[in-house]
Model the fold of this input.
Amino acid sequence: MTKYKSIWISDVHLGTKSCKADLLCTFLKNNHSENLFIVGDFIDGWKLQRGWNWPQEHSNVVRRILTNAKRGTKVSYAIGNHDEFLRSWLNENLRFGNIVIDNHFDYVDLKGRKWLVTHGDQFDQVVRNWKIISFAGDVAYNMLLSCNGIVNVFRRKFGLGYWSLSKHIKSKTKQAIDFIYKFEENLAEHAKRQNCHGVICGHIHTPVIKTIDGITYINDGDWVETCSAVVETMDGEFQLLILGADGKMKIESTY
Done:
């Protein structure tokens, strides 16, 4: 059992076949924190509208978070674009048990620095202005995720580890690289205007810790491809954790 000051997770996409709910449940069972931030797209409302898919593993994740909240973990849920149906209730002081729900949160770390915590979809021009294109892109992305499963069936037969086709294509496509770069810049610029030391977000499924124009940009990744999280240790260090091929969370980078 590892204890942290805070844990950030996002883009779990409960309700989809690609969600790694069992791995997330194990992570939350073995890692406790005073604060847990769910940084958007926890439930995939878009996918559930097209067809219901909710195995027991997905309920186990919800139960685990509710149990942690009951035992004293302060849980904050920042809404994303896939669970945007929650935004229509925000003016009613939205809570789910002990979980506080909002578009974004301010967080002050152990060193007294202020962070903006937000999913990030409101800084994605495609999501904001061309929702039909965004939906089409989501369908294409889910097709790539399905291909991941097929590819890795054959890789396992040859004793090879997990490899993400969708992640590979995203990292090699110029349009995707340009989009990610612009998204990161927009969020860093907004955080600077809010007098924040940095921003912690999700949305683009690309985990990283980096500095952009003097602002620390942290993306905690996802639980459909990378299986990653960001934590603040009890010593005030930020760590990006990514699931390794051996099934253990490894420190990818620190701040």
Observations:
- The first helix runs from residue 21 to 30.
- The helical segments are 21-30, 45-50, 56-70, 125-129, 131-157, 165-172, 174-193.
